[in-house]
Amino acid sequence: MFDCGEGVQRQIIKAKTGFHKKMKVFITHMHGDHLLGLPGLIQTMALLDRQRRLDVYGPLGVVDFLECIKKTVQFSLTFPIEIHEIEEQGKICEEDGYFVETIRSNHVIHSVAYAFVEKPRPGRFYPNKAKLLDVPEGPLWSKLQKGHQTELPNGRIVKPEDVSGPSRPGRKIVYTGDTRPFRQLTRFARGADLLVHDSTLDDTLTERAEDDGHSTPSQAAKNAKKAKAKRLVLTHISARYDDTSVLLEQAKKTFDNTVVAEDFMKIEIPLPEN
Amino acid sequence: MFDCGEGVQRQIIKAKTGFHKKMKVFITHMHGDHLLGLPGLIQTMALLDRQRRLDVYGPLGVVDFLECIKKTVQFSLTFPIEIHEIEEQGKICEEDGYFVETIRSNHVIHSVAYAFVEKPRPGRFYPNKAKLLDVPEGPLWSKLQKGHQTELPNGRIVKPEDVSGPSRPGRKIVYTGDTRPFRQLTRFARGADLLVHDSTLDDTLTERAEDDGHSTPSQAAKNAKKAKAKRLVLTHISARYDDTSVLLEQAKKTFDNTVVAEDFMKIEIPLPEN
User: Fold this and answer.
1) Is the ipTM of this complex over 0.90?
2) Do A36 and B31 lie within an 8 Å CB cutoff?
3) Considering the entire predicted model, what is its pTM?
4) Whole-number pLDDT of residue B35
């Protein structure tokens, strides 16, 4: 979960996501609207007897915040919480299938952006090649498909690349959090399958957006284009816009494959084939 | 506002109550589901440039809570907040038309209940009596109606009781917060026009309710009856009840004028005539 605004637990109930899953929360900055859902989320998890560890990543201050909530709002935990205060840019966590990177962004207080990056998947498996090399169907195929070299009954070694195409990239999702446009984003978001970008105010309010540490649709779209992202999601839209089509139009002039984020929106990101 | 759970600001927007009005918040106890809406509410008020003072009343700990939120979640205030930690039972605030009283309740942590009590209104005004005493219609009538004695142009003093019936009681609303049944409530809620009572679990789970510091519908109804309250609202219903009619039926066996609280429910409480 990237950022955790007030009411998250209610949305999780509506979305039927569940409170017991493996989960990491990544906070971009210490403003209430990105943070104040955390205490209630944790409390509800505890009420529902969650056992799994919860990892929380965020800028300096997130430890103090959770400590003081724990001290003043009395609740007992049923599961461990590990809080990671981010001190440096770069990779902050790595799991089997993915890692998460962070970079400083440019808001009115210290803030970071995040990239969720899937690791490359083994290349496409060619059964015909396996058959030609006399690899017997079954566990050995599966081992090769998962990218491990294997020894045949006759003693010969077969490597994954002997029976598969080149490894295929995973997916990459970048979430800027609240930010003005910043130069380093281009490299950070390079080739992202999805770029979720601050777009608080429309282009006619560019100066106000700059003052408040936010971006406009055109700026978000330019960043998506420069980074060669595949899709753009405009988010953190100001409550002043009952109708967000004005923002969408402004972005689409520069970057067509854009949508405006909505509650409970689902976006399917296909696995790239090369 | 009595208690301030997560998501209050969203509900205020939906209910169109506004963020700029004169307002006092009364917290019953330091559990997150009664408290965690406060930071976001305050932050949104500041964003909307509220100027009026906000008063927050609550048990020991509410100062620490707001202080640590202010320190860790960075926001700047546009209005003063006065936090009142309740140390003793009795009257905790008094305004022109009403006062608020508190009493210790009986939850798993320190907790209080509140009574909102309107002051008596001047008695019904009788124009005929005023005319008989030669009070000229206009400002002097209005002064007498508001309960002030007045001097006629001829020098005679007329008292409100000369031209009005006996003073009429105001309304009384009692909110228990989370609590097991407790003896002192009967006197505290005596004659309440509305008693809003904890009714977390239904009667078949009385033991569990006792363990968790809550009440059942029958217990709430008995309290309403003993206190001679006029109406009862069951609140803090556990999320396990999709259908709350079972709770309502259990309460109605003892106290018929009962409803189950719902989001955005409005209840009109008529001004009593005597």
Assistant:
1) no
2) no
3) 0.81
4) 92
